[in-house]
Write a structure and sequence with these properties.
The chain has 17 helices and 12 strands. By secondary structure, the chain is α+β, with helices and mostly antiparallel strands. Among the domains are: 91 residues, no CATH class; 77 residues, Regulator of K+ conductance, C-terminal domain (Alpha-Beta Plaits); 78 residues, Alpha-Beta Plaits. The longest helix has 38 residues. The C terminus is likely disordered.
Length: 450
Amino acid sequence: MEWLWTTLKMYPEITIFLTLGLGFWIGNMKIGKFSLGVVTSTLLVGVIVGALHGQIVISSNVKSVFFLMFLFAVGYGVGPQFFRGLKGDGIQQVIFAVVICVSVLLSAVLMGKLLGYNTGLTAGLLSGAATISAVLGVATDNINQLDISGDSKKAWINAMPVAYAVTYLFGTAGSAWFLSSIGPKLLGINLKDECKKLEAEMGGSTDEAGTMSARRQFGFRAFKVTNRRLIGHSVREFEAALAPDRAFVERVRFNGGPTFDVAPDTVLEDGAVVAVAARTEVLVQRGPEIGPEVDDTDLLSVQACVLDAIVTNKALAGKTMRQLADSDLKDIGRGVFVRKIARAGQEMPLTWGMKINRGDALTLVGSKTDVERAASVFGYVDRVTDRTDMLFMGLGITIGAIIGAITLRLGGVPIGLSTSGGALGGTDLRLAARGQSDLWADSWTGAVGV
């Protein structure tokens, strides 16, 4: 064992990966319904491993680099949507956030005074109890600027992660327990029943691992047009006749001839076979109004596509899903269905009255041509990739950290964002590079304001 601890001291990089491995292993364990989670368990394992046999020193540069990358990733995920939301109906949320922030800060300071904590321990207490990692970076920068001895600075900074790791446990598990156990009792509701009700309303399901529902929300089916009300009319009129349900003709075959894509003005002749895209329930309920369903392999060989489109178009921000569906802006809604809306990484309710914001991610379904056309109108396609755009990540962190490093002194007190807070603000450079500089400016304005 002595050899093991000596090796870990000599090669601290091994300690980092040992901590990660043990942390994730313990975090995935469950005792009944309780689980620490990988973040909390990794923090606690780090504290234990570092304290078992003397101090294992990790380079401060390593800690700073990974901390900035972590904060950048957090800010990148929520920046544009968060600050865009504040410009809308977010005043009440802002007031509530200010009250919470002030209350949490005063509580931490008061407890630090009562317990005789130094500045480092108090900062760690605040950071862990409130689960705000950025406090560690801000506190470190400010401690380094204080007029105290180097040993005191080192002792305070080293004390922060210990207090953070211990209090983070209650900051996460404690708050979750309170919200799930005490909160519902205060509100007089049954949380389990309410969750099931919301899941049913939103069409959610609880599939087992490795399984999925056989039902498809959207589909393409072929029908032979025999309804006299539809024969001799254009595709646009055909689709309007099925309103308010949304159904779109993608391809057509006339008199057993070749198949081809249609235009809104294409006229449907007697006996034409059309490939119709719609929600499954619409195809089942309204299909007989068109005519008998047929199995036409060539006609149904449409290149279906699922893409995530990021909304950056000013003209579409603030519009409801119904307005988008009815919009004639480059026929944005024609042939396209929205499967999911994500805002700041959280799935939003998919209703006709749902308003979209710039920065929202819409999962679009439809033919490849229609989906890519709609995505270009919304903003740009966020394609799945296994490569990180290091150019934008590097520039985003650099610019954010430089701005955060600027410090003003008021009465001898250093005030600034710190490199950590700056990294949180430099989150939307990618959108800026795509011509959306106003979104990037909004993110910086909000970050500096905070």
